[in-house]
Amino acid sequence: MKNCIYTIVLSIFCLASCITAKCPGYDLSDFQQISFRKGDTLTYVSNQLDTIRLNVSDFHTKGPYEFSSYPDYECDYDTYYQTAVQNGISIKEHITYNMSIKFCDDNEYEVTFSDHTEKNNYKVEVTDTLLNGTICDKYLIKDLSFNRRIDACIKVDFCGIIEFHDKVTDLTWRQIR
Fold first, then answer.
1. What is the CA angle 37-41-42, rounded to 5?
2. What's the pTM?
3. 3 state DSSP class of 75
4. Which residues make Cβ contacts (< 8 Å) with residue 9, sequence separation at least 6?
5. pLDDT-based confidence at 8, cuts 50/70/90?
6. Helix (H, G, I), strand (E, B) or coil at 6
7. In this predicted model, what pLDDT tens digit does every residue of 16-30 receive, in sequence order?
8. Average predicted confidence (pLDDT) for the chain
9. Cβ atoms < 10 Å from Cβ of 130
10. Engineered SS bond to 80: which of 59, 94, 154, 161, CB 3.0-4.6 Å?
């Protein structure tokens, strides 16, 4: 009987805690997941030494909020940046509990952070890379459908999209930091 009472009291405490729990939201000073904010400029140079500057025209993040159910999966990151179109190229990088990357009008690349898999129409390889003394994830994404204009890209934590290949122009663009 005593155990039953303790269980009931513990359940009520947990329920009350969940009802009043707060989601921390997204820390705008954390550039690890989404490296750019509205007004930033991403500069890329091609293998032919052309330069393209993509201006971040949109940035969204979900702020802190209260939730009443447990677990609340919406408490994860929900943030993105998008660049304006320049020379027919734009980038949208969206982080939730997964990651999606969209170039131009292409279909999105949707990546699970633990992906090392081949999807229906693209392949993702995740490796570790050393960046300024910190080990971070490097995502190599390749289109297998042959329907995307940007048919390969590399994303690195803290840096965003560091390289992409434009199938139409056959140019490989590398980010200048």
1. 100
2. 0.76
3. helix
4. none
5. very low
6. helix
7. 444 445 555 556 666
8. 79
9. 9
10. 94
Residue 159, both tokens: 């840096």
The position carrying tokens 């199938």 is: 167
Q: Specify the pLDDT at position 132.
A: 77
Q: Which residues pair with 61 in a beta bridge?
A: 79
Asked if residue 82 lies in contact with residue 46, where contact means CB atoms within 8 angstroms, the answer is no
Separation CA 86–CA 52 (nearest Å):
7
CA distance 14 to 16: 5
- Would you tell me how many other CB atoms lie within 10 Å of the CB of residue 102? 19
Whether 162 and 176 have beta carbons less than 8 Å apart is answered as: no
Length of the chain: 177
Q: Which helix (H) or strand (E) holds 161?
A: strand 160-166
The encoded tokens of residue 81 equal 């940046």
Q: Rounded to an integer, what distance in angstroms lies between the CA atom of residue 23 and that of residue 157?
A: 23
